[in-house]
């Protein structure tokens, strides 16, 4: 498969309908993904921007050869060294050795580190460009830590296309490939999940980079990311969304996340939800059993929340592992300006609430209740009332 993005740019990537886990087993991809590679034909020079994940290298080359004689590719741009975009470079460069590979200085390190090849690297920095002839240029913009040190964007003058690699992408397999053609709810569900799970810790850099690029006053007719659809209809809509998401994003939502052994902590969670609703009827209240839900979907819900309420029963003086692994992930993502509370059932020692409180504070959440709510055995009516009181307290705190 290949298709024309416009008269000068052809998509030569791979739609991966089968993908369900990304970054090993760390990130779910319920709707698959795409690895977008772009062939840019200038008046005099031809450039290939990024490639595809390694398992698809052979297929990628077969398709690419249908589109162009590989020897007519003058330059390769590796906007990012991660293997989902660079994975076909070893195979490609065996066919066209010596072809210049443009990447950031950190890109040289990551590509060498991963493939141990001495390719013809041309390290570039912001403002460097490739002359494609006829006054047309491909201009580079470093995008350090968005989301790797080597990440960079490039911009095609004349066609006014931004190639931002991972930024503005989504893990979303589709044959439509343009933002105006796909289901908007699906598109934005994947775009926000991608931001929440990958870009959240880099939000200050996202804001700064967008301001820097906007400050260049470059017209943008299309944004061609390396995953998911091409933004051609109102392309700046996703840039504006990123500015919103990068600014300690919150919806009017509180999410209760728990794990439970014999239903006591679940019953407590549901009683907390009653109190929340009583105090703050407009709130979008969501409950997730962490052991039975996709962790990345939960992370997306945390991203959207003003506060989270986390529950675990006590086991072996600690907490259930679904909650500890969720909190490890949350800590790394560095959520800002979110409140939290903890609860959990116990039978004898009762450490879980203290453990969750500590994890919440380490992850940067502001505790609404320092004590949290400890429930002995299964909740009786008194405990249900205490849970509702905690719910009301959180409901009030997020008004
Ligand atoms: Fe899509 Fe950072 O790789």
Characterize the structure shown:
By secondary structure, this protein is an alpha/beta fold. It has two domains: 3-246, 4-Layer Sandwich (Metallo-beta-lactamase, Chain A), CATH 3.60.15.10; 254-394, Flavodoxin domain (Rossmann fold, 3-Layer(aba) Sandwich). The protein has twelve helices and 22 strands. The strands form five sheets. It has a seven-stranded mixed sheet with strand order 1-2-7-8-9-10-11. Strands 17, 18, 19, 20, 21 and 22 form a six-stranded parallel sheet that branches. The longest helix is centred in the last third of the chain and has 17 residues, at 381-397. The N and C termini lie far apart (51 Å). Residues 80, 82, 84-85, 147-148, 166, 226-227 line the site of MU-OXO-diiron.
Key features?
399 residues, alpha/beta, Metallo-beta-lactamase, Chain A, Rossmann fold, 2 domains, 7-stranded mixed sheet, 12 helices, 35% helix, binds MU-OXO-diiron
- Alpha-beta classification: alpha/beta
The tally of helices reads 12
Instruction: Identify the CATH architecture of the largest domain.
Output: 4-Layer Sandwich
- The CATH homologous superfamily name of the largest domain equals Ribonuclease Z/Hydroxyacylglutathione hydrolase-like
Bound small molecules, deduplicated: MU-OXO-diiron
CA-based shape: elongated
Strand arrangement, major sheet:
1-2-7-8-9-10-11
Mean pLDDT across all amino acids: 98
Rg, rounded, reads: 24 Å
Total discrete domains: 2
Distance between the termini: 51 Å
Question: What's the total number of strands?
Answer: 22
Which stretches of 5+ consecutive residues score pLDDT under 50? none
Please estimate the helix content. Answer: 25-40%
Strand content: 15-25%
CATH topology annotation of the largest domain: Metallo-beta-lactamase, Chain A
Using the coordinates above, name the CATH class of the largest domain.
Answer: Alpha Beta
């Amino acid at each position: 498969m290949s298709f024309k993005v416009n008269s000068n740019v052809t998509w030569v990537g791979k739609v991966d309908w089968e993908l369900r886990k990304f970054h090993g087993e760390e990130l779910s991809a319920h709707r698959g993904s795409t690895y977008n590679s772009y062939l840019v034909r200038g008046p005099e020079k031809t450039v290939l921007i990024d490639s595809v994940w390694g398992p698809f290298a052979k297929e990628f080359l077969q398709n690419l050869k249908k589109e162009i004689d590989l020897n007519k590719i003058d330059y390769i741009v590796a906007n990012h060294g991660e293997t989902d975009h660079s994975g076909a470079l070893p195979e490609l460069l065996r066919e066209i050795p010596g072809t210049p590979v443009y990447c950031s200085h950190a890109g040289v390190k990551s590509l060498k580190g991963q493939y141990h090849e001495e390719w013809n690297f041309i390290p570039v920095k912001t403002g460097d460009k490739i002359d494609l002839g006829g006054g047309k240029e491909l201009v580079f913009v470093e995008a350090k830590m968005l989301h790797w040190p080597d990440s960079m964007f490039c911009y095609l003058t004349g066609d006014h296309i931004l190639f931002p690699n991972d930024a503005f992408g989504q893990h979303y397999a589709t044959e439509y490939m343009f933002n105006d053609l796909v289901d908007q709810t699906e598109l934005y569900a994947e775009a926000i999940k991608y931001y929440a799970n990958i870009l959240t810790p880099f939000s200050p850099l996202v804001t700064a980079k967008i301001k820097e690029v906007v400050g260049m006053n470059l017209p943008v007719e299309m944004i061609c990311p390396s995953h998911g659809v091409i933004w051609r209809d109102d392309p700046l809509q996703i840039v504006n969304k990123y500015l919103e998401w990068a600014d300690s994003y919150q919806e009017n939502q509180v999410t209760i996340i728990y794990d439970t052994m014999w239903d006591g902590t679940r019953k407590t969670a549901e009683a907390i939800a009653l109190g929340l609703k009583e105090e703050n009827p407009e709130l979008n209240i969501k409950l997730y059993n962490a052991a039975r839900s996709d962790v990345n979907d939960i992370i997306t819900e945390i991203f959207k929340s003003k506060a989270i309420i986390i529950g675990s029963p006590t086991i072996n003086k600690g907490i259930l592992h679904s909650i500890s692994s969720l909190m490890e992930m949350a800590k790394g993502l560095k959520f800002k300006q979110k409140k939290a509370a903890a609860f959990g059932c116990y039978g004898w020692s009762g450490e879980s609430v203290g453990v969750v409180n500590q994890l919440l504070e380490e992850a940067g959440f502001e505790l609404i209740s320092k004590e949290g709510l400890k429930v002995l055995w299964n909740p009786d009516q008194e405990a249900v009332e205490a849970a509702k009181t905690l719910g009301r307290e959180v409901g009030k705190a997020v008004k």
